[in-house]
Amino acid sequence: MNMRMPWDDRMSFTSLDGASGPASRPKSPPQSPPQSKDAPMAKVRLNLDVSQEIADFLDTLAQENATTKTDVMRRAIALLKVAHEEKKRNRSMGFVASSRDDVLDTKIVGVL
Asked: Residue 1: inside a domain, yes or no?
């Protein structure tokens, strides 16, 4: 019997070909010839356990932006990727008022 414990918050994956397992130990993908930049990327299905509060927030974001929860997560990951790349360059993220785009109002710290 496979029992999931409350503290077990690891993500799992399922590839589109049906293989599955823990995200920390994915199976090596089969070797294939390099694809052109215009070729679609292979997709991996992720299952993510979140609190009810986060699930509700994802629903709200998706509804307010006329999109899906999946797209909200993709956008969030894209933003995290930008933060990661800029941190490597010793840069940080922040917010500016649209009327004063030359003045940083809020600096985001501690994301990465």
From this structure: no
The pLDDT of residue 32 is 55
Q: Is residue 8 part of a domain?
A: no
**pLDDT tens column, 26-75:** 444 455 556 666 777 888 999 999 999 999 999 999 999 999 999 999 99
- C-alpha to C-alpha distance for 76 and 84, rounded to whole angstroms: 12
pTM, two decimal places: 0.58
DSSP 30-70: PP-PPPPTTSPPP-EEEE----HHHHHHHHHHHHHTTS-HH
What 49-53 contacts at long range (C-beta under 8 Å, 24+ apart), as own/partner pairs, is: 49/9
Parent domain of 86 = 44-112
Q: How many independent structural domains does the chain possess?
A: 1
